[in-house]
């Protein structure tokens, strides 16, 4: 059994399994995958060059059919980056990596041009795969990433690891470390394909532009979706770094999405990788058979558009430049999907085009015999008969593949006898030899035979349950507000039935009948008293519950265009200052009233609104829509949707999925129902997978989020058993602040250490559930939850489990009790600025004056611990001295030998001693660095019997100067270098006959301080 399997099994009982041990186990794992493995410090190299030059020589073998001068030129170019941002340089390298590098070189007196391959994608064994730990890079600073994965000498992956056994480190710290590396050693990341952060329990991969929440796990090695919330690290590393799969990812599944303002680098998620490869294989089989490639069902928000990009990219290489026709059923969807492809033009190595008409599409298809990515809408085929092209290398991609317009059958109008041909039949007639594939975010109805006749069966299913577990989307909760506006249930049913007669029935006479009924519904739903009630409720619900949720973005789905205008005007009547906050987004018509134009605007205005709504800082917060933006439109921070429009089936599921996108701090999306869609939600879910139906079949806030909130509220109440916080519910802000302070003090009692851990976890869950059901929670419940959140927030900021720096602690203490219900009138516990130091006597006096002794003790311990941690990295003697003082003080308190007040006085004394230690160097004329050596040299109790201060200072300064001059990169990693350093130190000390023979152990302490300095300097 290998070491990493043993570690997985025994981790619970191996508390000493640290970062170094985890690093070694991963190195063994890579060896088992067939990678060469080296220890960085053992490699003689130029530390300013992040390439592994020994492996780079393989480029001559890979390109042995080329002139050596061409490869020489390529190697020169990939090390000469010039001026540009990291994203620009990295994008250029990814182009080289995926497609080869175009070089011009001189041979036999003339200039030649050719492509040099950096990786042989066709012959796996022609490449060299190497993994190196502790790979030092010198740039703006000296940094040593934990593990770097190389292919042919290029450092393509940087892995940052954290100790599996330390509670106060996790992957978030690894992410911050990676971002720091990008700032201080950017040359390494010029060549980066993606990054990995791992602490064994969580392993995630992401690109140089990815936020932390966009780093994703890799949960399978075979494409199954059986893993749930946790995937072991072996699955992650074997899943990505299997050589064949790794090469495939590098070539086909990393893309830059580029527009005029941003460059976003995207690494495929594991579900995209396996599903796209399945789709490619299915398509290749279909081309030679029935031309039905199948249906690709990945739930909304899981990256379906990018999956299409990856699919097109890979298939066009295999099929040697086929032509793709992408079909949507609405103009705005066509624009959105086209925009995504256009942003990836460099990756696709061609620019997509939108067909303006069938004539234009025919020209596009026939003006070339290869390549081409063309976009068209369904309705362009309505009046077209005949064939656009007979080519058999055309792939038709249908977005949302199961709408009613995709019929193959012919229908006869009973009144006129006219034959109506289904849209799918028209497309098949226009592209008779094409192969068809469907992409959808919602499942195909079990009764929908048309879709299967057109496309075939499912290729891959990635359901809501897996998507939420993977963090690709967030869950959605549902809240009904119908009762609050007193709409008649029978009328709602009539609205629902009549509306869907219009939308779902294809027969002309039914459509006409529905249109007559429509005018009555318009009157009903647009009635002034109904609009007044709904808009008033929406405004209050938004202000009280959703305005401060994330960026405050919300969407209102109106029944019709006229209702949208009425809602807009009513909301502005209620809130005249919201003219920048709320906007209407819908299509216009020549028949619209003149006054509508200023509200709706033209196409460029809609684009402006789109940019504003996608900008989290923009004052536009609420969009009133009818049909636009309900599919294919992503605003990650959007968390609230108000629905006043009957919808059902996949249209409903696509609409509510606007609020399921991942965003930092987003616990879920909330759908607020004003029209009665609950039954349709349940019907729509009946087509989903069994586990989706079980988990999300009833997303009602009253049945899911609110009971969970009440459960967590009760737990927090129990955890505060014995503490009276009733004065928190009074009218005095001062009393409220004092109760919060005492609540923190209550939890900070050392006897409640385990209780505090439970409380921090449960109070956070309480906050999360409240964000989804705040309008349902009773006022006293919300108020009590606010108390628990205030205490939790303060505890997080001052508890010893935090990882805050001294300035951050000082800054946050200033805001210690600004967590109350109101934003004004709150009394601060300690009113200090960022500049105030732990060593400021005024600060210590204010801490001593705090009423809450447990809180006082915690603050002082935290600040002192942070200061001592600084010493542990720089000054061995003082670190040991003050660590011992802190330990003894804590032990006396825990054992009951001193009171809370006495321990505070002891801690203040230690703070003053620390201040005096800082001043010692100034008094001796020594730097902080020199003082650390002086403390070690002058440590022996009777050392002044042998040397005066002047001599000790001279020894200190010579020793420090000698170490600085002889410092070498990586010497803390090389035992030979450490041995040489120790010899240098001993020779210098011997010159002064240090240490005296009478003093044992003095030399060991000085050597230990030197080694500490070496490690910290590196």
How would you summarize this macromolecular structure in one to three sentences?
The chain is 49% helix and 13% strand. With 1018 residues, it is of the alpha/beta class. The longest helix is centred in the C-terminal third of the chain and has 25 residues.
With strands numbered from the N-terminus, the spatial order across the biggest sheet is 15-16-14-17-20-13-21
Class of secondary structure makeup: alpha/beta
**What does the largest sheet look like?**
7 strands, parallel
Number of helical stretches of at least 4 residues = 41
> Strand percentage, roughly?
5-15%
- Number of E-type strands: 27
Distance from N terminus to C terminus (CA atoms, Å) equals 36 Å
Shape: flat
Low-confidence stretches: 1-16, 501-508, 800-836
Q: Nearest-angstrom radius of gyration?
A: 34 Å
Mean pLDDT: 80
Helix content: 40-55%
Walkthrough of the structure:
With 1018 residues, this protein is α/β, with parallel strands linked by helices. 49% of the residues lie in helices and 13% in strands. It has 41 helices and 27 strands. A seven-stranded parallel β-sheet has the order 15-16-14-17-20-13-21, sandwiched between helices. It has a six-stranded mixed β-sheet with strand order 1-4-7-8-9-10, sandwiched between helices. The protein has a six-stranded parallel β-sheet with strand order 22-27-26-23-25-24, sandwiched between helices. Strand 18 (410-412) and strand 19 form a beta hairpin. Helix 11 (270-287) packs across helix 12 (304-318) and helix 30 crosses helix 35. The radius of gyration is 34 Å and the shape is flat. Mean pLDDT is 80; it is low at 1-16, 501-508 and 800-836.
């Amino acid at each position: 059994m290998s070491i990493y399997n043993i570690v997985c099994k025994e981790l619970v009982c191996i508390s000493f399994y640290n970062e170094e041990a985890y690093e070694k186990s991963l190195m063994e794992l890579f060896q088992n995958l067939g990678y060469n493995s080296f220890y960085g410090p053992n490699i003689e190299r130029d530390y300013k060059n992040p390439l592994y030059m020994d492996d780079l020589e393989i480029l001559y073998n890979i390109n042995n059919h080329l002139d050596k001068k061409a490869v020489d030129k390529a190697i020169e170019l990939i090390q000469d980056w010039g001026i540009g941002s990291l994203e620009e340089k990295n994008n250029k390298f990814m182009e080289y990596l995926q497609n080869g590098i175009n070089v011009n070189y001189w041979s036999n007196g003339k200039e030649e041009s050719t492509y040099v391959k950096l990786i042989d994608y066709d012959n796996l064994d022609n490449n060299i795969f190497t993994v190196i730990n502790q790979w030092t890079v010198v740039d703006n600073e000296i940094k040593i990433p934990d593990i770097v994965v190389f292919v042919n000498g290029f450092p393509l992956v940087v892995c940052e690891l954290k100790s599996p056994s330390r509670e106060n480190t996790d992957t978030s710290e690894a992410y911050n470390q990676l971002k720091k590396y990008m700032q201080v050693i950017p040359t390494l990341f010029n060549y980066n394909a993606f990054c990995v952060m791992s602490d064994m329990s969580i392993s995630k991969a992401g690109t140089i532009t990815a936020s932390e929440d966009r780093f994703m796990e890799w949960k399978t090695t075979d494409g199954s979706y059986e893993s749930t919330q946790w995937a072991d690290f072996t699955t992650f590393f074997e899943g990505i770094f299997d050589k064949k799969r790794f090469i495939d990812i590098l070539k086909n599944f990393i893309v830059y999405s580029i527009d005029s303002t941003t460059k976003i680098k995207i690494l495929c998620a594991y579900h995209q990788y396996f599903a796209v490869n399945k789709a490619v294989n299915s398509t290749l089989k279909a081309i030679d058979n029935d031309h039905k490639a199948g249906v690709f069902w990945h739930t909304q928000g899981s990256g379906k558009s990018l999956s299409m990009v990856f699919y097109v990219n890979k298939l066009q290489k295999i099929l040697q430049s086929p032509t793709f026709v992408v079909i949507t059923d609405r103009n705005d969807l066509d624009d959105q999907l086209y925009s995504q492809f256009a942003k990836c033009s460099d990756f696709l190595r061609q620019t997509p085009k939108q067909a303006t008409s069938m004539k234009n599409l025919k020209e596009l298809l026939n003006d070339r015999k290869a390549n081409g990515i063309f976009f068209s809408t369904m309705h362009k085929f309505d009046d077209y008969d005949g064939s656009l092209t007979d080519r058999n290398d055309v792939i038709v991609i249908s977005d949302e593949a199961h709408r009613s317009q995709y019929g193959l059958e012919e229908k006869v109008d009973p009144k006129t006898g006219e034959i109506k041909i289904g849209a799918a039949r028209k497309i098949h007639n226009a592209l008779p030899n094409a192969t068809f594939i469907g992409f959808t975010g919602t499942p195909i109805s079990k009764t929908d035979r048309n879709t299967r006749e057109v496309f075939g069966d499912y290729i891959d299913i990635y359901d809501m349950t897996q998507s939420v577990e993977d963090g690709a989307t967030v869950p959605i909760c549902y809240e009904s507000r119908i009762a609050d506006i007193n709409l008649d249930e029978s009328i709602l049913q009539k609205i629902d039935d009549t509306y869907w007669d219009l939308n779902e029935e294809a027969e002309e006479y039914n459509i006409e009948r529905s249109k007559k009924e429509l005018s009555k519904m318009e009157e009903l739903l647009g009635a002034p008293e109904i609009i007044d009630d709904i808009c008033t409720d929406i405004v209050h619900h938004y202000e009280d519950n959703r305005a401060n949720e994330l960026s405050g973005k919300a969407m209102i789905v109106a029944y019709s265009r006229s209702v949208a205008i009425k809602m807009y005007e009513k909301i502005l009547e209620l809130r005249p200052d919201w003219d920048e906050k709320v906007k209407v987004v819908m299509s216009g018509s020549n028949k619209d009233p003149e006054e509508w134009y200023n509200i709706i605007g033209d196409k460029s205005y809609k684009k402006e609104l789109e940019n504003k709504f996608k900008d989290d800082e923009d004052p536009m917060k609420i969009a009133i829509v009818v049909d636009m933006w309900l599919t294919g439109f992503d605003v990650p921070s959007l968390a609230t949707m108000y629905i006043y429009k009957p919808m059902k089936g996949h249209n409903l599921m696509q609409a509510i999925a606007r609020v399921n996108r991942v965003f930092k701090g987003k616990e879920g999306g909330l759908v607020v129902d004003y029209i009665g869609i609950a039954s349709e939600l349940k019907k729509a879910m009946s087509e989903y997978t069994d586990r989706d139906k079980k988990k999300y079949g009833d997303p009602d806030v009253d049945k899911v989020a609110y009971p969970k909130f009440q459960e967590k509220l009760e737990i927090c109440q129990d955890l505060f058993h014995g503490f009276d916080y009733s004065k928190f519910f009074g009218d005095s802000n001062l009393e409220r602040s004092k109760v919060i302070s005492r609540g923190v003090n209550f939890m900070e009692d050392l006897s409640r250490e385990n209780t505090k851990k439970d409380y921090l976890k449960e109070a956070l869950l309480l906050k999360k559930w409240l964000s989804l059901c705040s309008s349902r929670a009773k006022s006293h419940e919300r108020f009590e939850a606010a108390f628990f959140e205030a205490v939790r927030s303060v505890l997080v900021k001052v508890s010893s489990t935090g990882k805050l720096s001294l300035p951050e602690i000082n800054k946050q203490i200033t805001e210690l009790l600004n967590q109350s219900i109101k934003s004004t009138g709150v009394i601060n516990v300690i009113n200090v600025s960022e500049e105030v130091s732990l060593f400021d006597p005024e600060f210590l006096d204010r801490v001593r004056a705090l009423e809450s002794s447990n809180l006082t003790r915690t603050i002082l311990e935290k600040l002192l611990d942070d200061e001592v941690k600084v010493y542990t990295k720089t000054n061995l003697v003082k670190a040991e001295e003050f660590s011992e003082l802190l330990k003894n003080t804590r032990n006396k308190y825990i054992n009951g030998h001193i009171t809370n007040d006495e321990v505070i006085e002891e801690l203040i004394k230690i703070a003053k001693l620390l201040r005096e230690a800082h001043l010692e160097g100034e008094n001796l004329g020594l730097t902080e660095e020199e003082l650390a050596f002086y403390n070690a040299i002058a440590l022996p109790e009777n050392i002044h019997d042998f040397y005066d201060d002047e001599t000790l200072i001279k020894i200190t300064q010579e020793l420090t100067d000698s170490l600085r001059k002889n410092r070498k990169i990586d010497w803390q990693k090389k035992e030979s270098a450490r041995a040489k350093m120790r010899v240098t130190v001993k020779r210098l000390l011997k010159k002064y006959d240090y240490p005296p023979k009478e003093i044992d152990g003095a030399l060991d302490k000085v050597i230990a301080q030197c080694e500490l300095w070496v490690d910290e300097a590196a």
